[in-house]
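Appendix B, example 12.
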Amino acid sequence: MSTALAVYHGNFGRATLYRLNKPLATHAHREGHLVFLVDGCAANMDISDCRHGLDTNFGTAVNPWEPHNFVPGDLLNGSIFLTLYIKPIWFLEVGRSASSALRFGRSSIELTGQVQRLVNLVSTLLVEDEQTELFEGYLYELTRECFDQSWQWDCDDPTSSGDWRRVSDFRIRNSIRLMKERIGDELALDHIARDSGLSRPHFFKLFRQNVGLTPNMYLNTLRMETSLERITMTQDSITDIGLDLGFSSQASFTRFFTSNVGIPPTNYRRATMLYS
């Protein structure tokens, strides 16, 4: 069974060690996403419809809001992965440079000696529950090493990547605001399309053109962010969290959470420590 071995939340985002043996549905994150195999069989990730290996030679990098899924290699015992969710604003502030916008140039990250050393250091601190002042420094160093490598053979300017979308249509900007306000509403997207002055088919088409995601995936991302915050920062019951987000039962919320995170919400809460 997939399980969380260690989970840290902090100003940087999230740093986790997961044992995964089940596939994850296609989803997205607001954060930059780095995944490395720590122990076990190789796996794959499909990132924007392109498959990338997770093995002893390569990890993967996923840009904020970039659709991706996970395909395990060992469906019986699972494998252990270091999985990082890095907030772009943290990366920008710590880097103190306009060129530090968190957009990776490519998805495959070679496990060079330096990258492997940092993966081992971060994983060890997570396993040993060591909240040292070095932890955040190692996280930044690992993210920066992967960022620099991802642009090493690319002539484009990382600060002006064509995938860095700006939402130009005011109706779509309004719909995003309404999603945040009505995150737990039943039939939220139908009502949002209507209140944005668009038919449902036109709304879905225009949203994808502007954002690069379907409205369903964007709304699911907002629900995941809200559920993670409440699971880690409050004592609210899993049932109440799910109901507030529009799920009909704890079971349906648990299925949603597990298919997007890989771990049941109760297990995630037990494994979580706050890093400050």
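The radius of gyration is 19 Å. The chain has two domains: 3-160, 170-274.
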